[in-house]
Amino acid sequence: MRISARLAQRIAVTILGGATLVTLLALVYIVFFVLEKGLEVVSVDFLLSDSRDMGRAGGIFPTLIGTVVLPLLALSIATPLGICTSVFLTEYTLENRITRIVRFGTDCLAGIPSIIFGLFGFIFFVMTLGMGWSILSGGLTLAVMVLPTIIRTSEEAIKAVPRSYRDVSYSLGATRWQTVKKVVLPNALPGILTGIMLGIGRSIGETAAVIFTAGSSLRLPHSLFDSTRTMAVHFYILAREGISTENAYGTAAVLIISVLLVNLAAYWMMNRFIAKRS
Amino acid sequence: MQLKFSIHNLSVFHRQQRLLKLHELRIPAKEIMSVIGPAGSGKTTFLRALNRMNDLEPDFRAEGQVLLDREDIYQPGFDVVRLRRKVGMVFALPIALPLSIYENVVYGPRLSGVRYSKRLDELVEKSLKASFLWDEVKDRLKTSGLRLSGGQQQRLCLARTLAMEPDVILLDEPCSGLDPISTAKIEEALTELKDAYTIILVTNNTKQAARISDNTAFFLMGELIEVGPTKQIFTAPREKRTDDYIVGRFG
Amino acid sequence: MSIIGEKGVRRILLVTAFSALSALLLIALFIINEGVPFIFRYGLRDFLFSSEWKPAEGRFGIFPMLAASVWVTLGAMAVGAPLGIAGAVFLSEFAPKSVMRIIKPAIELLAAIPSVVYGFIGVMVLAPLIRSSLGGPGLSILAGSIILGIMILPTIMSISIDSLLAVPQSFREGSLALGATTWQGVYLVIVRAAKSGIIAGVILGMGRAIGETMAVIMVAGNAVKIPDSALDSARTLTANIALEMSYATGMHRQALFATGVVLFVVIIILNSLATVVIKGKVARR
């Protein structure tokens, strides 16, 4: 049976469009489902009060602290390291064996599953270095996880700075570092910030690596050596142990909203960056 | 007549290919020398060899001697940063940095350590006046340099270079994208500047060379064919190839 | 800067540049250090192919978990790859540019949702659905595959869109000028041209699927048993590590690290494969 080419195209487009729609709907459904059930539970009280009865009652405030502190620590370590690495790769060397090795290392690091980071963090930070289940262990582990993201986005941002800017700077007698500091980095900043936001977003949602390094204490942490629970971990425990479906939904809702906000901020920044260029 | 540059046996290579071969060239101080020739003749490579901007490209290599005030700038250990402050460059496309007009002009001086804001203000006014841009922008020094028209941006680039108070100004086809009025303004600026600066101007516009330069050097296929006073080059060139190019038999 | 000087700056940057690499080596070192001695002592063949995982009795065969990981991953690919590529083709070749510019970021945004949330939805919505319509416990390989598939969809779609967009416009114009429909141009020329990028995206998606832990724990059932059908409950390698790590000691713990080594090796192989595929495309150009 011969179908005309036009008909074949129409069928194909319908199927393809359908597939796209299904994908979109599935993803949107997930978000709305959680938000619908979860926002019922969320209130200012929920956000700001301590957890009681293993999370069965009360709020999620300690987990909010954990969710803020861990990514903060992670990014404060990963950002300088990541930017320095990408500056080195783009401004200070030509493409040679060293850069290829560094890139390979970065790509591999990016592909490692979070559970392996959890294992590593556990055996290295928690046990060998004796930091115990703590914010410090969790933050350091997350820093390593997020490092490739920072390196990649920073490198892209730096490469996007027009070569002519560098030419001008050098022709005025600037040294390499002066050019980087005064021309390249300031112009790459929005792109770099996008990478940082993406790193934060990823850290917020991370569970496997965090649970084995920062522990799951519901008490308010007072020092870097205290264990803490992030929202993602809290949600996981609530859901899996069947402690409280309601609060699970509530936590999930806050979690999703936080992640979406951070990523939206990243996109907005990226768009401003592109707009400024053109 | 004082010599600013004295060049001996300069060759510039990109990977294995020789882009420029220059036996001898003397560039007098405080005069405008124009460098003419068709595309691909090595003019830009030559210009960039004078402030060692070629060093920034991978796979570029230079051999020979370039004496600036009798110092060989290619000797090992030579301070390239100092060189570039002494020898400024204006590029073909106006490249205003995404900063305010004021910040654009003071970018260079700030790098070499000038902090005193009164001094910076003076420099800004002096440089913008010298590049014939002051009147047009004096009320909006804090606005972005990107908002200026092409011709204004190019004059801004000239001012930026002048703010470094160099000895030499290199210009690589500075008027190629500009309208005639902007071009005239820049030519006027250069003519006034030569009292204080040595100017080397690469141009593909032979009429411009004839208009404003004191000396002219003609390059073809990476070699210096002829050099001499502009009047002589344009009326009675020694080489036939020079004559052919000027007359327009090839471009 | 006058204190450090240009050379100093370069040295500092050089050192930091190796941070990612050192981290990688450190991770490899510690995981291997904990896991490999166990493999040697227990025997690689028994470890990989025995189906008895009874830590209390000192038996550590991970074959059921291996099988589960393979099944779940293949299932996820069967869900994620067709939908992802189909969506990518639609968005880059047929949808108006404005639509693509909204939907692509939207999908990437949705991909940022934490895996635990996906898992939760799987438990609350998908598993009961499967149980009531197809039977079985609901928490199954099928559930895991579907949820994982949805999770890796955005990755595959995003990379495929980028690869398709990178195909020169002249290809499309040339095809149309010869009288072909857009669709014919797409399946005859464009997709073929973007092939290596799309494959790389799929391989990357596969890597993500294999490495996923939390969502799989929540929906796949976690029974330590070689799965017979898609409706069976199963436990993947990653789930096994995560579930038992908190209380494992001694040889048990080492066995879990050894599982980590296996995962590590598989991921590195997959990543290198993806890199080779991409490089092959660049080299051929």
3D structure, described in words:
Chain A has helices spanning 5-39, 44-48, 61-92, 97-111, 114-128, 135-159, 163-171, 176-205, 208-211, 231-240, 245-277; strands at 51-52, 57-58. The N and C termini of chain A lie far apart (51 Å). Chain A is globular and about 65 Å long. The model of chain A has no long low-confidence stretch (mean pLDDT 86). Chain A has 278 residues and is mostly helical. In chain A, helix 3 (61-92) runs antiparallel to helix 8 (176-205) and helix 7 (163-171) packs antiparallel against helix 8. With 251 residues, chain B is an alpha/beta fold. Chain B has a single domain, classed as Rossmann fold (3-Layer(aba) Sandwich), CATH 3.40.50. Chain B has helices at residues 43-50, 80-86, 101-111, 117-130, 134-137, 150-162, 180-193, 206-212, 230-235, 240-247; strands at 3-14, 17-28, 32-36, 60-68, 71-72, 87-90, 168-172, 198-202, 215-220, 223-229. The longest helix of chain B has 14 residues, at 117-130. The mean pLDDT of chain B is 89. Chain C has one domain (44-284): MetI-like fold (Orthogonal Bundle), CATH 1.10.3720.10. Helix content of chain C is 78%, strand content 1%. In chain C, a hairpin with a 4-residue loop joins strand 1 and strand 2 (59-60).
What labels would you give this structure?
heterotrimer; A: 278 residues; mainly alpha; MetI-like fold; 2 domains; two-stranded antiparallel sheet; 2 strands; 77% helix; globular; B: 251 residues; alpha/beta; Rossmann fold; 6-stranded mixed beta sheet; 4-stranded antiparallel beta sheet; 10 strands; 37% helix
Map the helices and strands:
The complex is a heterotrimer of chains A (278), B (251) and C (285).
Chain A (H helix, E strand, L loop, with lengths): L4 H35 L4 H5 L2 E2 L4 E2 L2 H32 L4 H15 L2 H15 L6 H25 L3 H9 L4 H30 L2 H4 L19 H10 L4 H33 L1
Antiparallel strand pairs in A: 1-2
Helix pairs in contact in A: 1-11, 3-6, 3-8, 4-6, 5-6, 6-8, 7-8, 8-11, 10-11
Chain B lengths: L2 E12 L2 E12 L3 E5 L6 H8 L9 E9 L2 E2 L7 H7 E4 L10 H11 L5 H14 L3 H4 L12 H13 L5 E5 L7 H14 L4 E5 L3 H7 L2 E6 L2 E7 H6 L4 H8 L4
Parallel strand pairs in B: 3-8, 3-9, 6-7, 7-8
Antiparallel strand pairs in B: 1-2, 1-4, 4-5, 9-10
Helix pairs in contact in B: 3-4, 3-6, 4-6, 6-7
Chain C lengths: L4 H13 L1 H24 L1 H6 L3 E2 L4 E2 L2 H32 L2 H14 L4 H20 L6 H25 L3 H9 L4 H30 L2 H6 L17 H9 L4 H35 L1
Antiparallel strand pairs in C: 1-2
Helix pairs in contact in C: 2-12, 4-7, 4-9, 5-7, 6-7, 7-9, 8-9, 9-12, 11-12
